[in-house]
Amino acid sequence: MSASGEPTELPATAYAILGMLCFERELTGYDAKKWADASLRHFYWAPATSHVYRELARLEDRGLVESRGAEADEPRTKRVYRITAAGRAAVAAWAATPTDEAMVVKHPAALRVWLGHLVGAGDVRTIVERHIAQVRTRLGEIDESLAVAETLPGMDYPRAVLRWSRGVHQADLDGAIAFLAELVAQTAVQPPSTGRVTPVT
Amino acid sequence: MSASGEPTELPATAYAILGMLCFERELTGYDAKKWADASLRHFYWAPATSHVYRELARLEDRGLVESRGAEADEPRTKRVYRITAAGRAAVAAWAATPTDEAMVVKHPAALRVWLGHLVGAGDVRTIVERHIAQVRTRLGEIDESLAVAETLPGMDYPRAVLRWSRGVHQADLDGAIAFLAELVAQTAVQPPSTGRVTPVT
DNA sequence: CGTCTATGTTCCCTTTAGGAACATAGACGA
DNA sequence: TCGTCTATGTTCCTAAAGGGAACATAGACG
What we know:
Two copies of one chain form a homodimer.
Chain A: H1 12-23, H2 29-38, H3 49-61, E1 65-69, E2 79-83, H4 85-96, E3 104-106, H5 108-114, H6 121-151, H7 156-189
Antiparallel strand pairs in A: 1-2
Chain A binds a DNA duplex through helix 2 and helix 3.
């Protein structure tokens, strides 16, 4: 496996998909997408459907996965992917390689709050309240995902990662709640006449 | 506000850059990039340099920023950007609009740990230890950024957001440490002979 | 038998991203 | 005064990602 020089490095998404194929014997693109939405999303990313299929095609080009059509008892027109030995070696090598890429937190609500001085305190409050509701929903989703992982064997690492990322989202929630409290306290004490808002030139 | 039809929606990155121009009277692309690296990165993203320039060009096309060349006493060939009234209105409108976009946590280390069963426990440990070091560094950077924000007026919201995201990164660190402890405990108890690894067909 | 939802995939075009290269200013020492 | 080193500042090229619509079929349910 892994001929002299790897053709080119693959993006993390490709390895994520290869990774899924290490847990499940076979997957369709659709399965992979569902899985990503349910679990991977909470600590890495949920690629677009078209992206999943593109990656699968590329992986097959490189011999890291192989595919077959539907079988007789599966009348549906579908393509089922399975990882190859080369693929398994490639993911393992990738997973064992430390990276200097840092975690990226892309937080749309925080970005808006960052610009809070441009809008009324009421608007900021709405943003944060909605964000809090969203995060609560997400914590529920993570718990569901975690519950599923409990029932499956060989999922120790995925479970640990889900717990880990659950903590991160919980901290986000706590921070949002704390900020909201601060915001409410502040606007209660000082009436909106304080000249802190939009000192436009 | 919000005129009948906006030309087309801009991506969040564009608003992030417009946002910076609300804090500072004038910025070059280089300045914007540095700022993003120092602060925005911790709760949203640090766009590539080329991306920053691209966004500035687009914003100018749309009349949301305007630019001038270097002045006599600034011999360098540079372009300095400033936000326009239209730009200010656009960011304010955007910032006040709640979004349903969820937070994305892109966590390269966690993704590798997720595949822990493919590699030795020692490799997993190395990954996590390096990640812990990285996060510690980052917490330091956030504190620095926070210290800078302390000294500037009108930075209440940015400061609050930095504190908020600091908590998120702290939770990441805590989770990593907890996981590492678990990992060490487990490998101490059960020798590496457990048949948990790659049940290949 | 109709139609509704879940499963499953592909195509096409746009936008976003990131690295490398390019270019110049000033600082500092030899 | 001449390298050369770092900080400043920008552009170009190509790859990756996104997203939605279209296409297709199976099974469920009334």
